[in-house]
Amino acid sequence: MTETGKELNPKKLLGLGILLLAFIIAVFAFLNRDREGLREGQLLIKAEGVRLGVLTVDDLRKLPEVRKRMVINSTSGLTRHEFTGTPLAAVLDSVDHGLTQKYARIVTRGIDNYTSGVSMSEILRPDNVYVVYSDYGKPLKTKTGGEGTIQIVVCDDEFGQRFTNYLVSLELQ
Ligand SMILES: Nc1nc2c(c(=O)[nH]1)N[C@H]1C(S)=C(S)[C@@H](COP(=O)(O)O)O[C@H]1N2
Ligand SMILES: [Mo]
Q1: CA torsion 159→161→163→165, rounded to 10°?
Q2: Cα 135 to chain center, whole Å?
Q3: Which residue puts its alpha carbon closest to atom 7 of ligand 1?
Q4: What residues contact 147, with CB distance under 8 A and at least 6 apart?
Q5: What is the pTM of this model?
Q6: What is the mean pLDDT of residues 65-82?
Q7: pLDDT digits (tens, 9 = 90+) for 123-139
Q8: Name one Pfam family in it (predicted).
Q9: Most confident region among 30-44, 129-143, 151-165 by mean pLDDT
Q10: Strand pairing of 147-149 and 138-141?
Q11: Is 114 in the pocket of ligand 1 (CB under 6 A)?
């Protein structure tokens, strides 16, 4: 009787419970870890599970620069922008000239795992899909309020749902 009483000691049970919870949290952290090392301000371009390149904001700045004035009718109401960026097609060409011919669509992903898609025909349409890195000449704010994130702008989407904010990867399919 005393033995069983000792084994079911509430303190011991509590200790075991805490250990178990810590273990479960560790397992989830491990499962959710970012296998690709994605970071805001860097854009990973991949296809068929292979990394084709990583472009930083500085790399993007070296590509042909386009300024786009636009009004977006998004969740925060009407917002005015004067984005600086480069056409997505030019970004792809800078990695490999064949990409725009070889693939049909691109899945865009933000640091928050928001994903959206654009077809290659939309990307190849002039003045339509841009990779932007500044607004009114200032670096775009990261999800945590820091400086220097990247965003996708799709000009024929006036509501902005398909704009991927905090862009970190492009997967060609
Ligand atoms: N990374 C990321 N991009 C995103 C979203 C999101 O949740 N995460 N929401 C989309 C949706 S549904 C809308 S309406 C717009 C909202 O843009 P805003 O947050 O700049 O107002 O962003 C789009 N891009
Ligand atoms: Mo939205």
Answers
A1: 120
A2: 18
A3: 114
A4: 139, 140, 141
A5: 0.84
A6: 92
A7: 999 999 999 999 999 99
A8: Oxidored_molyb
A9: 129-143
A10: antiparallel
A11: yes
Backbone angles phi, psi at 57, to 5 degrees: -60, -40
Q: And the tokens for 93?
A: 């060409």
What atom in ligand 1 is closest to the CA of residue 79?
21
Atom of ligand 1 nearest to the CA of 159: 14
Ligand 1 atom 11: residue of nearest CA: 161
Q: Is residue 166 within 6 Å of ligand 1 at its C-beta? A: yes
Q: What is the Cα–Cα distance from 161 to 157, expressed in whole angstroms?
A: 7
| Residues 112/166, Cβ–Cβ less than 8 Å | yes
Question: CA 76, CA 154: separation in Å to the nearest integer?
Answer: 18
Instruction: Give burial (CB, 10 Å; 0-12/13-18/19+) of 169.
Output: buried
Ligand 1 lined by 83 (C-beta under 6 Å): no
30-63 residues labelled b (16+ CB within 10 A) or e (exposed)? eeeeeeeebebbbbbbbbeeeeebbbebeebeeb
Q: Are strands 66-74 and 115-119 parallel, antiparallel or unpaired?
A: unpaired
H helices present in 2-119, as ranges: 2-7, 10-32, 57-61, 88-95, 99-102
